[in-house]
Specification:
By secondary structure, this protein is α+β, with helices and mostly antiparallel strands. It has three domains: about 90 residues, Acyl-CoA dehydrogenase/oxidase, N-terminal domain (Butyryl-Coa Dehydrogenase, subunit A, domain 1), CATH 1.10.540; about 110 residues, Butyryl-CoA Dehydrogenase, subunit A, domain 2 (Beta Barrel), CATH 2.40.110; about 150 residues, Up-down Bundle (Butyryl-CoA Dehydrogenase, subunit A, domain 3), CATH 1.20.140. About 45% of the residues lie in helices and about 15% in strands. The protein is built from nine helices and twelve strands. A four-stranded mixed sheet has the order 3-6-7-10, with helices on one face. The chain has a four-stranded antiparallel sheet with strand order 4-5-9-8, with no helix packed on it. A two-stranded antiparallel ribbon has the order 1-2. A hairpin with a 2-residue loop joins strand 11 and strand 12. Helix 5 runs antiparallel to helix 8. It is globular.
Length: about 375
């Protein structure tokens, strides 16, 4: 059974974090960033705030110095932070170093070389999976890693890799058996960015303001010991954190939709047209009603999926629900918010247009909505009829 009421300690966390976002972040959100990079001082200020709230290193397990938050607690944090554009939608975090769970499986020398420096803030990593012809379909991956004695030789091109320009190493997905695709043919490797044959290619200007990179790998030789897990298990390793990542998408989208509803309601009460506030117009009321109901559905999907995962249940399908429904729902919400604001919503004097651009991108990145629907459909066909 999954409760749809947050435990008291999480309600307290939600209240305290909301107060911080409302008083310390939203008031400066139109001036804290240059593109998708922090202006001087803001990142440290927000990080100090997270430390005071007990959220520093929140993605890090207790054994490595983190607070030991479960996924449901993290959804509360992601949702509240999703209400503001004071921080980058992607990239540098204010809750600690960005560490994918793959690194926590490292042992011995690899842990010393890669995980611990990341936790200390001495190194940064990027995740390199997407390719020109293999975005939502990783089984079509063309980057290959061929075994050569005690080494692998890697060739290929990765595209749209966030953070590659600042990364010290990459967590690279490459095909070790292209005939098997994502079913046992993809492996995970740790590759230093200064390894001979690794080169940054094009950098792409996106509508969201971030600038992901192309990475070219030309006969890159790495020790076989830099493979994470067994050969062919790369995609299976990734699935362990992809589910939580899809729930994170949903949680962040909840914050976007909630802020959109708040701004839309506030403006509808203030704006008078033809002698009446917009809030008294049925056409506007119906928009607000739909935004509210869809937001509540999304919130329940996120809390349920997080609770199932925390209880050890295989909730891959529920995670797909979060990614698909919530990203689409939040885009509708911020789009309606923009429509209600009229011309003002199009200006860069308000956060609406930035939230609109960012949320539009999430319908494509890290799993396009169409792919999510296909996977959900396969589940429906298998479970029903």
């Amino acid at each position: 059974m999954v409760s749809f009421i947050l435990p008291e300690e999480l309600r307290m966390l939600q209240t305290n974090l909301r107060r911080y976002v409302d008083t310390e972040m939203i008031p400066v959100e139109m001036q804290s960033l240059e593109g998708e990079e922090f202006k001087p001082g803001y990142q440290k200020t927000f990080q100090d705030g997270m430390r005071k709230l007990g959220l520093w290193m929140m993605d890090v397990p207790e054994e490595f110095g983190g607070p030991g938050l479960d996924l449901l607690a993290k959804t509360v944090v992601w949702s509240e932070l999703g209400r503001t554009v004071a921080i980058p939608a992607r990239g540098d975090s204010i809750t600690g170093p960005t560490v994918r769970s793959i690194l926590f499986s490292l042992e011995g020398k690899l842990r010393e070389k890669y995980l611990l420096p990341v936790l200390r803030g001495e190194k940064k990593a990027c995740f390199a999976q997407t390719e020109p012809d293999a975005g939502s379909d990783p089984g079509s991956m063309r980057t290959t890693a061929e075994r050569d004695g005690d080494h692998y030789v890697i060739n290929g091109v990765k595209r749209y890799i966030s953070g590659a320009g600042k990364a010290h190493f990459m967590q690279l997905m490459a095909a070790t058996d292209r005939t098997r695709g994502s079913r046992g043919g993809i492996s995970c490797f740790l590759v230093d960015m200064n390894t001979p044959g690794v080169k940054l290619g094009a950098q792409y200007d996106t509508m969201m303001g971030d600038r992901p990179w192309e990475i070219i790998l030309d006969n890159v030789r790495i020790p076989a010991t830099h493979r994470v897990g067994e050969e062919g298990q790369g995609f299976a390793l990734a699935q362990k954190w992809l589910g939580a990542g899809r729930v994170k998408h949903g949680a962040r989208a909840i914050g976007v939709a909630e802020r959109a509803l708040d701004m839309a309601c506030s403006y509808a009460k203030q704006r008078v047209t033809f002698g009446k506030p917009l809030a008294e117009r049925q056409g506007i009321q119906w928009k607000l009603a739909d935004m509210y109901m869809e937001l509540e559905v999304g919130r329940m999907l996120v809390w349920r999926a997080a609770s199932l995962i925390d209880n050890g249940v295989d909730a891959r399908v529920e995670a797909y629900h979060c990614k698909y429904y919530c990203d689409e729902m939040a885009f509708r919400a911020i789009d309606e918010c923009m429509q209600i604001h009229g011309g003002m919503g199009l200006t860069k004097d308000m956060p609406i247009e930035r939230m609109w651009r960012q949320q539009r991108s999430y319908r494509i990145t890290e799993g396009a909505s169409e792919v999510m629907r296909n996977v959900i459909a396969r589940h429906v066909l298998k479970a029903h009829g």
